[in-house]
Amino acid sequence: MSDEMEYSVKGIQAWFVDVMDTKTRYMVSSDFMRSRTIERLVEVMKLAKIKTGEQVKVITTDGLQGYPRVLRKTFGLQSPCHASSRTKSMIIHNVVIASERGFNHKIERLHNSIRERTKIMRGFGEINSAKLIMKGYEIFYNFCRKHQALNKYPYELATDLKLGNNKWLDLIKLSKSKR
């Protein structure tokens, strides 16, 4: 599932775009950007594709008209009648428009939590600070905050990673060992 959330940074429009696994609630990729261009959305999707490999079968988005193009560039989205064995793996693009066929409740709930947390933060006035704050929130959300609906941390369902009680410290140690 992918969605974008609009921000105003010092009166200038900015966007937080993210991709979430709906089963585990794991935030797979995200970025904070000044403009929501096809190229920027493709970057977020390509990172999600790299992290998930060939696991993605369905992508759910809202009705943003650029998503079919983004998905074609990233996953080789095509119509079923033109699929062949020589083409990239085909994914299904599920478009959910709130007024028509439901709502992206899971990702919208995440966005509400992010808005709640970031509306009072200092440093959110600069795009680079906002990008770093959002990357930190992604780590916090995936590894350090137990999801209420799942009663587990998203990483526990999405990875085989084992962390102790001090998850931040364990993540720091893991990042140092990977260098």
Features:
single chain, 179 residues, alpha+beta, Nucleotidyltransferase, domain 5, 3-stranded antiparallel sheet, two-stranded parallel sheet, 6 helices, 40% helix, globular
Characterize the structure shown.
With 179 residues, this protein is an alpha+beta fold. The protein has one domain (2-177): Nucleotidyltransferase, domain 5 (2-Layer Sandwich). A 3-stranded antiparallel β-sheet has the order 1-2-3, with helices on both faces. Strands 4-5 form a two-stranded parallel sheet. It contains 6 helices and 5 strands; from the N terminus they run βββαβαβαααα.
Topology:
Layout: E1 2-9, E2 12-20, E3 27-33, H1 38-52, E4 58-61, H2 67-75, E5 92-95, H3 105-118, H4 127-144, H5 154-158, H6 167-177
Parallel strand pairs: 4-5
Antiparallel strand pairs: 1-2, 2-3
Widest β-sheet, arrangement of strands? 1-2-3
Percent strand equals 15-25%
Task: Describe the sheet with the most strands.
Answer: 3 strands, antiparallel
Mean pLDDT equals 84
Structural class by SSE content: alpha+beta
Q: N-to-C terminal Cα separation, in Å?
A: 31 Å
State the helicity in percent bands.
Answer: 40-55%
CATH superfamily membership: Ribonuclease H-like superfamily/Ribonuclease H
Give start-end ranges of low-pLDDT stretches. 79-87
What's the structural domain tally? Answer: 1
